[in-house]
Amino acid sequence: xxxxxxxxxxxxxxxxxxxxxxxxxxxxxxxxxxxxxxxxxxxxxxxxxxxxxxxxxxxxxxxxxxxxxxxxxxxxxxxxxxxxxxxxxxxxxxxxxxxxxxxxxxxxxxxxxxxxxxxxxxxxxxxxxxxxxxxxxxxxxxxxxxxxxxxxxxxxxxxxxxxxxxxxxxxxxxxxxxxxxxxxxxxxxxxxxxxxxxxxxx
Length: 202
Fold this sequence. Notes:
Blueprint: E1 4-12, E2 16-21, E3 24-29, H1 32-37, E4 43-52, E5 57-62, H2 65-75, H3 82-91, H4 94-102, H5 106-110, H6 117-127, H7 149-161, H8 166-179, H9 187-201
Parallel strand pairs: 3-5
Antiparallel strand pairs: 1-2, 1-4, 2-3, 4-5
Helix pairs in contact: 2-3, 7-8, 7-9, 8-9
């Protein structure tokens, strides 16, 4: 699996980039806003997702891991393919997406080409509780952070593997997330925080 690429911008399209990595050109689909940030000849690093189909292998690129995780969440929803998922990210960044889901704002998704009322409702239903937006009460979208449900699940699984009962592991992760409400923790950070919670509970 190709998780990231670092190379020179060889060609730029409206929503794609060809990245020259050691003489090999990789065609990567990105959002139009992301394309506007890139410059021909500049070195860039993209977090990527490889989508394998019967007739093609497609690469999708993202600014960072948080965008990639949101993309994975979206493509895990029935009826939402990679193209639609990238379309959602074109209209809504990770923070805005978390807010839209939290507020059940169907209109925010209906502005995305190819996403109708039914799909908008399904996205909200499927992502409710899986994206976390700290600071929701203040309404400050810019300070919001997203914690992918997969990160929490990975940490719970790790704790259970260390001998922690499932229920206790879940509670420790939830408490750790509350204490880290101004951060976007990765698995190691969240695991350390959860272990501290477990240690303090003894």
